[in-house]
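Most newcomers find our protein records easier to grasp once they have seen one. A learned vocabulary of local backbone shapes supplies the integers on the structure line. Here is such a record, shown just as it appears in the course material:
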Amino acid sequence: MGSVDGDFDSRLPALKPVRMKRLAGNDRKPEVFREVEEEEPLSPIARIFHEPCFNIYVMAITGCKTRINVDVVKANLGHTLLRHPRFSSLQVKDAKKDGGMKWFPTKVDLDKHIITPELYCAADDSPDKVVEDYISNLSKTSIDDSKPLWELHILNIKTSDAEDVAVFRIHHSIGDGMSLMSLVLACTRQISNPKALPTLPVRNTAKNKAVKSKGIWWRIKLVWNTIIDVLMFAATLVFLKDTVTPLSYGRKTGVENGGKRFVYRTISLDDVKLIKNAMNTTINDVVMGVSLAGLSRYLNRKYGGIKEDKGANQKKNNLPKNIRLRAALVMNIRPLPGLHALAEMMEKGSKAKWGNWFGCVLLPFDVAIHDDPLDYIRQTKATIDRKKHSLEAVVTYFLLSMVLKIFGAKVAALIYRRFFKQTTMCFSNVVGPVEEIGFYGHPIAFLAPSVYGPPNGLTMHFQSYSNAMTFALSVDEEVIPEPHELCDDLEESLKLIKDAVIEGGVIKNNSTKWE
């Protein structure tokens, strides 16, 4: 699901331009000094992410087709990413404001932010498992707050799908996931045209324009849906909890504090588009449908205590009836600044909109085994279309903003945590570049963003890139001890849905539009 449309842009504070100075001398280190007229306070939402119960980090796993030259990366970060004020500032307590925090400009030593561990691959270990273990161990730690809260880990190890792997770890207080991903992409360039920024897919804006011409009954239904969704949100905070399933066992032991394991798998975006065009849906619908099918297969197998679910059908399967399983979605409620605006800000020190502005949405998953695999797509399309006809994200944002203003960051963080804890999983789908790109000249093989910190046993992220799509799972191993099995179920579900489309004989040309 994409961002919620709305005219919030004018209410967002712009980041102030910064002036840069470099050390003189031939042996100077890649350090950066910032000068600003005044120190800015952290936004209220940013303060929430510093509460112990809601301390969240963004992890962006990036595979490269060549070995990463650390010196090249350091040389380029100084005049790109570090020009963003949030990446060259400390977050410190404001003595003038009780409980408040502010951005304090500092000298950035890249040697403390770019980490190149020496990974050892034993004879009985695969490089993929070594990388998995390293990233999992990262999620058990936090970044030292004596420096800006971001790191880039360059692992210098070849895996089955990349010549080298890099991991960005960024504290969520710096920005929301979509903004952070956009900023990282603004540091990349097209492989075919090294001076050009990446191109993001064209969104279909015809639907948004058509909304303005809707009649009174459409608007009444919008209000009604919003009321129902907000009441369901409130009920979830108070008492309505998801069914305990094999996707949520172990949460009582403190899932959010035990670290996560990150696994990912890359599938063909062309296959997703084929299904999308054949069924006249969106890529979001297909991604959600595949997720529903994969989760249903996984749960059917776990409830039956079997390795394979062959022979399961709509009438005979192992799934209990009336499973309540919902995903917590965090949706942007403001337009993103755009890659060109972010690139210009880093290059020229111009202004750009920034901050954590998001609302919460509950997305139900009706877990079931269907004889027709296409029913998963039809079902999720109906659910998403219903959610699109609601202002749930906008209203929940303003309600939580009021709580934050009246009761402070501690209470607001507890409410956010409660919202996630009452649901089974988190879900996100991010649009990526349509062509191959390079990070400071290093061609990228895949992008796999994720997070750790939410109190869920499972977080699913889908990221498109060129002609591929990578899904990344962040799991608690006490809850999901064999995450690769869930990856297999998702892959197999996509194959079954694609085969059903081909057998049905309804195939159209692949569209380049996201919706």
About this structure: The two ends are 10 Å apart (CA to CA).
